[in-house]
Predict the structure.
Amino acid sequence: MSTRAADRLRAFEAVTSRVETAGIPYVLSGGTLLGAVRDGALIPHDPDFDLEFDRDDEARVRALQDDLAALGIELRVKQRNGIGLADGRPGPDGGCHASNLQVYADGRHVGDLLFFTMFDDGIARRYDAATRTLYNPRMMIPAWYLEEPRTARIGTRSYPVVRDAALVLEVTYGPDWRRPIAPGDFTAGSNPRSGAVYDKPTERLIEHALAQGWDGDYRDRPSWPPRVTYVNSHAARRWVFRHEPELVSTDILTRAHRLAGRDRAAGLRAHHQRRLDAIAIGQAFAAAEARWQRTQHRRSREERQVLEAELAEFRAREAERRHRRRWLRRLRRPVRSLQNLRARRRRR
C-alpha cells in the first residue's frame, strides 16, 4: 500500500470513528460508496474518500477539529471560483466555497466531508446559502434514500450507506458500475477522473422513491428554489438547465404541495410529478432544438460547399481570362513594333 493510500485509510477510519462517537449521522458518498458496495474496500486509485452530512450538523463536525488535529488530521474549507448560473462567467476569486471540508493527513488531501441542505421538496442538495452556490448539483438525492440508511462493509467494519445503493450507483456511474475502471480509462459522457455520468438522470431516483410510497413532510425545511448565483462548473451549469426547471423558469411549475386543503403526501407526489413532466418537456424541447441546429449546420455546410464551388469556378474563369489577356498582349507587341517602324520610315 502506498503512503498516500495508507494516509487516506488512516484518516477515513479516524474521521468516521470520531463522527460515530459524537453521534453525527452520515453516509458514504461518491467513490467511497462505490468501493464499499462493489469491492468491500476503498478504491485503490481513488485519491480521497467522501462522507455526506446534513448541513445542520456542520458545526458539530467542525468541533471535531481539535481531536483530529492530535492525530495529524486537518480540516480545511475548500475555496474556489464559481460559474455564474445566468451567464456562465467566473465568479470572484475564492468567493464561492464548495459545500465541503477537505481532509488533510500529513499535508496530503485525502478526503472530503460534504454537506447537503434538505429543502421543502424533500430533495437534498449541496447548497451554500452564504455564497448562493449550488455545488455538484448532479449529486442531489431524495430524502427517502437517506431516512433509513443501510450498511456496507469496508474491511472489517460496517458503514452507513443510502437505501437502494445499487440503483443510486447505477444512476451515478452508469449500467456498468460493477465493472472496475482502470486509471486512465475514459467513457464518452462520463467524468474521466471518477467515471460519473455527466448527464446524470436523477429523475429515476425520484420516480423510484415515489413508487416506494415516499410521503415525507419537509415543510420545516428551507424553501426550494432559493436564490442560486453560482454553480461549481460549466458541466454543472448544463446539468441544471436540463434537470432543475425551477431554477431556469419560476413559472414552469407551481408549488403543488403547498396548496391549502390538500393532503401533504398527495401534494408532494403531485409536485414531483409536475416537476418530472416539466423536465421531460424541457429535455424534449432541447433535443428538438439540437436536431434543428444539426439540420441548420448541415444546410449551412451544403450551402458553403455550393458557394465554394461557385467561387472555384469564378476563380478558374478569372485565371483563364488573365491568361488570354497575357497572350493577347504578347501577340500585339510585334504588331505594334512593326507599325512603329513603318511610321518612322514615313517620317524620314
Summary: The first helix runs from residue 3 to 21.
